[in-house]
Queue: 4 jobs
Job 1
Amino acid sequence: MPFAEIDGLRIFYQDLPEDKSAIDLTDRPPVFFLHGFTLDNRMWQPQADFFQNDYRLIIPDSRGHGESDSPQTGYSRDHRVEELLALVNSLGFDRIHLVGLSMGGSTGIGFALKYQDRLESLTLVDTGAAGYSVGPKIARIDRIAREDGVEVAREKWIKTALTWYRDDKKEIHDLMDSMMRQHGGAIWLDPQRGKYPRTVDLDHVHNITVPTMIFVGEDDRIFVPLAQQLHERIQSSVLSVFEGTGHMLNLEQPKRFNEALKVFLERSDERG
């Protein structure tokens, strides 16, 4: 399995397709997919299956997630942005397409604000953003982890996060449950958590000029207003709202998402 050595840490990533001679990779940048909080690269499997015949795909596990190392500290958005840049550089890419969901989308925004010249396009899926409040849920889990331990916090987090994914969404529920149970929880115990320098992305995203696609599930109530505000402020953006869809849009409607993302990536390649 491929790992990159970054800041003394081993960062895992999928590098697809395995047989790179099977496709022509000379005329298009690779696509990086960034996962959500307490998840890992496996959340992008429907996209890996769909896109690997047309693009080189890099799907990493952020520090503290999946197969990557879990240090005691270093879990700020800035750390994730610099980790991503180091991975891009280590693989020898000049420019990339960047796709991120939730925490991964926030990382994407941070990367665009600092290293926009390295982007061919930016895709934000049910994205978070620095300085945007998602309510007290995260703070409660942090407190539980400190006071009662990571195992108790994890169970509470899983119960809260997977409320939407029942009955007809059992396959998604089981996948997310598996990823969350394998998440080590070090991020909750980071002694600097809540103390890292803060910024408000909505004050700065007007500086993003690369082609930007924003996807959001209509039923993802917390993140719909953020998606709309980002769309208003990023002049190069297109907003697509998926009806009857929650936070894990890429898993809930993979066919529609894949087809729409493919059109966007191809148009971005043509502009480039």
Job 2
Amino acid sequence: MFKQRLLSGIVLVVLMVVILYFGGYVTGAAMLLLSLGGIFELLRIYKLHNTLLGCAGYVVAVAYYILLFTNLREYILFMFIIAILVILGIYVFAYPKYTDKDIMAVIFSFFYVAFMLSYVYEIRTLKHGGILVIMIFICSWVNDTLAYCAGVTMGKHKMSPKLSPKKSVEGLIGGLFGAAIVGGVYGYFLDKYVYEINNSILVFAIIGFLGAIVAVIGDLTASAIKRNNDIKDYSKLIPGHGGILDRFDSIIFTAPVIYYLIMLMIK
């Protein structure tokens, strides 16, 4: 199990490096595919993945990314309004096939997965985006790894016994400060390349710490949804890791927060 998890993890990291290196449409298309896969996994929980209502969720995600790719962001809000009207139209004319909870599940799946995950692409399109986007993974995957190491070696106090009994307060602290330290070190090496960033060590350390807090919330949110619906993994797409939402749960939350922290803290 560990070997399978390790190998698939290495493959996943290599794929993400390639995707983020090329940027542009490559990164955007990858985020769209991940979004569609994540929406599918979430809607399958509610048995909506192969329904007309579920298809509306996929179409909304594609339409949203097309507006991003074509730089027509001023139409995104209008698209959201039309999307909600279409979804509600399906609800009304197919009544009583779907419930109000089904409507909420479809709308939530788009915003929770596609909209939030699109900020990986948004960060990559910024100046120095190839450098800045790495902070997403420092705040999520590096934080998760260091939290695990701290939890295994020092963990004594349960952080959330009912939701995630293996996570400890010591692991949480280790992950948060570990992400801050790694972020600060990353900022130190970037200082000579990115002139727009003042006090890069402090800036990236703060982003690392705050981003890691959000990453923990994202991880626990995905766990809470699984526990509410009595499932272990969202899918078996990634051997040893589960599905897209199992592996990218923290990134979904971290990406938009880091984007706006960058906008706030970096000229």
Job 3
Amino acid sequence: MVSDAFQWVRSLVFIVQMYLVMALMALAYAPLVLLDEEWAFRAVHAYCRYVRWSARVIIGLRSEIRGVPPSDEVVIAAKHQSFFDIIMIVSAIPRPKFIMKKELTRTPFVGWYARKIGCVPVDRGRRGHAIQKMIEDVGRGQLRPGQLIIYPQGTRVAPGQPAPYKIGTAILYEQLGQDCVPVATNVGVFWPRRSILRRPGLAVVEFLPRIAPGLRNADFMRRLEAQIEGASDRLMEEAGFSLIEARPPQTT
């Protein structure tokens, strides 16, 4: 059995090489992207496939996509536990784009490629304004086709910890009139938010049954949360994670 100390060293090596390869691949693909922005998608997919492969080889973290990844224009509402669930989702769909924090557009390499694939930057505290602008862009035909990924809880959430689902996803669902594909995951069990240590195991991202347009906002949000949380709990328990121990005690 691999000791935590050795696994920590393996994790550090993995993290360093992951960001080094990001820089190298970003530079290598940049001339092609300047000629044709379609190469941005190829670059992003190549990098995500590499990260999944190197995670398996270096730290023993295997990854599996379950369900049916969408290839048409949909809203993907995903559970977000770590950077690795982003990697896995993007690796599985053809034209990913995110609603992302505006600060990330200033991140070297990440920001440039995010703009090239059509990600939507959002100011902190102005999500409603950004969503309204995006809906207007759709009406003018200015939003690129693809799979729009949003995190209904608005941030990474540690396994077993509660966090409210925000109404922005329902607004998008209603105004865009597209199917919503919920996505569950257990990656936070192996890839914590604030730790170098990455644990071996099987990380899963599961695309759940679609929610067709037409539900009222409240009904949609209840169904979305129930699907994502129920499936994520199942996947975490499958990975050996104790939800009872992780969740705070109920107050009376």
Job 4
Amino acid sequence: MTGINVDRTEHDNGTVVTLTMDEGENRWNTTFTRAFDAALDEVEATEGPAVLLTVSSNEKFFSNGLDLEWVTSRGEHPGGPRKVFNAEVMALFARLITFPIPTVCSVNGHGFGAGFMIALCHDVRLMREDRGFLCANELELGFAIPEPELALFRHKMSRDAFHQTVLLAKRWNGPEALAAGVVQQLAPGDELGEAAVVAASELLRVARNREITGWTKERLYGEDATLNGPHGPADMLRNQERYGSGPGSIPSKP
């Protein structure tokens, strides 16, 4: 598969499935998007409790954003057709943010633009503490950040971190990203890989029911998401019969 490798490691209580981005700086074009999507098919086909761990084989870059050389080139290109890219990459981000198994990514180097976004689509992010930046650098490049992408950033960050990210193109280093809640854990470069595997394996405890995991993520990030509903939590609690309780919910007492 172009640019993406999938490997499985069995643990006592399930499987950690490692998706390795292996395409140089892991820049995003249609070909890379389709390879990533096909890799998610392979991950989702894993039977039993499983956790996705996304990593990069590049020592300097987790993912260096949009493939600008492909965007500005003419004629046929290995990066694939351009017209379908926006729709396909947005669909991929949506798929990953609502993926029905827990997801972890290991940010071992720079993650810019789409690379930052794909990291945010994971449930848990680890980052190298001594090297690399996360940055939405669209404004520096002269691009606006589309509203769906703004929504993704806002749902994954505090208001202040969101402001600094999308308006000031803040370059978050590891300690700053941890303090702002953009990532959940740091590790030295030579320990990051093992720390990410440990973090992923620990999430196997909540990986037994994909239907529940998928339903919960849809309520957080999908259509008519609970966080975005027109009514506040007090009203929802008073009128719980109007709202979905989800698969496998605790039954009400008679």
